[in-house]
Amino acid sequence: MTQNLRTKILAYDRLVPRYTSYPTAPHFKPIEGDDTLYRDLLTSLPEKANISLYLHVPFCSKMCWYCGCHTKITERYAPVEDYAHLMLREIDMLSDVLPPSHTIQNIHFGGGSPGLLRACDFEKIIDRIRSKLHMGPRPEIAIEIDPRGVTESRAAAYAASGVTRISLGVQDFDDKVLESVNRVQPFELSEKAVKLFRSYGIDAFNFDLLYGLPHQTPQNMEETIEKALSLTPHRISLFGYAHVPWMKKHMRLIDEKSLPDHQARYDLFETGAGKLEEAGYIPIGIDHFAKPDDPMSIALREGRLHRNFQGYTTEATDALIGIGASSIGKFSDGYTQNAVAMPQYKDKILGGHFAAAKYCPLTQGDKLRAEIIERLMCDFTADIGKICSFYGYPEYYLDDKLPELKPFVEDQFVTITNQRVITVVPHARQLVRIVCSIFDEYISRTSTTPRHAKAI
Predict the structure, then answer these.
(1) Apex 195 CA angle, 189 and 201, nearest 5
(2) Of 218, 219, 278, 338, which sits 20 to 30 A from 263 (CA to CA)?
(3) pTM, 2 dp
(4) Please, which residues bridge with residue 248 across strands?
């Protein structure tokens, strides 16, 4: 990558969403009244619907200063145990509404640190889902794990409960980098965790890495990638750290002078991505890499890759149902979000009401733009005319947006055919979110409001 090319790419950088949804979460509106709207969404699912579940566990034992998640710190287990019982109640409520003809295809535990759940409570939750809802014959069950909290009893519980994938929160393998963000986590912890899970028959791993952290350099990024590769994960995510101290006050504890500058961030990603591709991993979207035989690589080749709040996914289910405080769900006609504040979530569930507190309905125009954005984010290409026609609009409906792509075309970062097929070239993949924002009706491209971080 030449310095001139880097300079041209960085010149386009601006504040844009990550596009894990469209419209994005800041545009969700409070739900007025009771939970009738949410119940209607559940009962209006198609017959024999395929469903994904996302269970959010908003607790950690220690705050990592880079964290952008909804979580709270607790040194006691009692709040986590109480919360587990609330999730059990929420599962029971779902079973009262969802018919047995629906099938649970995917279950994802996120956080926070869902690995804080004791083995017995994790097993209770999985057993409750199995007893109350209809699960498919081979559901994917994934859990995000902090290597610092792995125990043999938990590993055994995951294996016995049918967990198929572990998403390991690695972040970095450089001790100085990790100390600077309040996360002391030697490489040996991750190595030990991987060996333990494999001894129980769980072999599908995703490693989450971050670039843009304090004291990171291309050299220690290479060393981190090499250590990650030594553990042979099936997937590696290389996320950009979003420094948003105006939204997450604990980020103010990070020494901003030690953060890499704009050009250094770019070089960190290119270094990490280059090492992963040299090792044979297939680039997936903007920040995922997978082995060629991994289901995500296969989905990319077959045009079946999708994007949701957990990142890239191989599944396109009829609904994503969120369980737990702050969990986000997706239905054909809109997005929902449970109450973020624990007291509000608790009061709703104990009162026998679903905890959905926000809703974002989807117009036909929203669905059209969401499809364009998802295809660009997943495939780096979108047939604009064809998508417009599919949603009942003229092929030329979005032609007024094409002139905004002219600078990208002139710099050979984007191509546009006469048939309105837009493609972002591979070496400009970090610009795809910015290209997506051109089709975003809800964002002002001249606004500097700090709702989002920059794309690069």
Answers:
(1) 140
(2) 278
(3) 0.94
(4) none
Hey, is 211 helix, strand or coil?
A: strand
CA-based angle 423:268:273, to the nearest 5? 50
Give the class (CATH, top level) of 24-361. alpha beta
Residue of 172, 276, 185 lying closest to 220 (CA atoms)? 172
- Which position has the token pair 């990558």? 1
Tokens representing residue 98 in the block: 């969802």
Range(s) within the chain of domains with CATH label 1.10.10.920: 1-19+363-446+452-456
State the Cα–Cα distance between residues 36 and 39, nearest whole angstrom: 5
Per-residue pLDDT in tens (0 to 9) along the chain, 456 residues: 577 899 999 999 998 999 999 999 999 999 999 999 999 999 999 999 999 999 999 999 999 999 988 899 999 999 999 999 999 999 999 999 999 999 999 999 999 999 999 999 999 999 999 999 999 999 999 999 999 999 999 999 999 999 999 999 999 999 999 999 999 999 999 999 999 999 999 999 999 999 999 999 999 999 999 999 999 999 999 999 999 999 899 999 999 999 999 999 999 999 999 999 999 999 999 999 999 999 999 999 999 999 998 889 998 899 999 999 999 999 999 999 999 999 999 999 999 999 999 999 999 999 999 999 999 999 999 999 999 999 999 999 999 999 999 999 999 999 999 999 999 999 999 999 999 999 999 986 544 455 677 888
Do the Cβ atoms of 321 and 94 come closer than 8 Å?
Answer: yes
Instruction: Please answer whether residues 450 and 12 qualify as being in contact, where contact means their C-beta atoms are separated by less than 8 angstroms.
Output: no
Provide CATH 3.80.30.20 ranges for the chain.
Answer: 24-361
Q: Rounded to whole angstroms, how far apart are CA atoms 297 and 281?
A: 9
